[in-house]
Amino acid sequence: MGDMDFQLLALRKENKADMLFIKNLYYMSREAEMATVPWSLSDKKLFLKKQFTLQKKHFDKVYPQAIKQLILYQGQPIGRLYTVVNEKSKDWHLIDVTLLPERCGLGVGRYLITQLINKVSSKKAKLTLYVHSRNPAYQLYVDMGFEKIGDKEGYYHMQNNCLESRALPYLIC
Hints:
By secondary structure, the chain is α+β, with helices and mostly antiparallel strands. It has a domain at 6-14 and 65-160: Aminopeptidase. The chain is built from five helices and seven strands; from the N terminus they run βαααβββαβαββ. The chain has a seven-stranded mixed β-sheet, sandwiched between helices. It is globular. Pfam families: Acetyltransf_10 (PF13673). InterPro entries: Acyl_CoA_acyltransferase, GNAT_dom. Keywords: Transferase.
């Protein structure tokens, strides 16, 4: 896969026609986890289908105002980015960033989160997120200046106040 030209990344609003991609993205993001479970293929598929439905319902209920975007590279979808912005209270929340497995580890997530931090910083706001305690992205968030402010049912609540964030090298989108 090699290096990525981040200038070829774009975001666009998710629409109903994207649902098959979003569903498959979710399934692929759980492949490594499913490889460790001694279930039949049909049981794994059923489990993932139910989990996807539950996650979608949860996001729709808890974050009805979410900005749901596809991450595109050279015009092709490679992931999703979900955020919530409350301009009044200056609270921004990163709900989800998920990439196709072959796009992980190339700096795409770091690049997009850096852009988000820069944008939030320009608004003198704070950025929060939740991450599972065993998610490898936890260390990325720590490296990017997020601090743990809570712990609930195995998920860390993290915050980057974006006012004292480190000099981040990417342009705001």
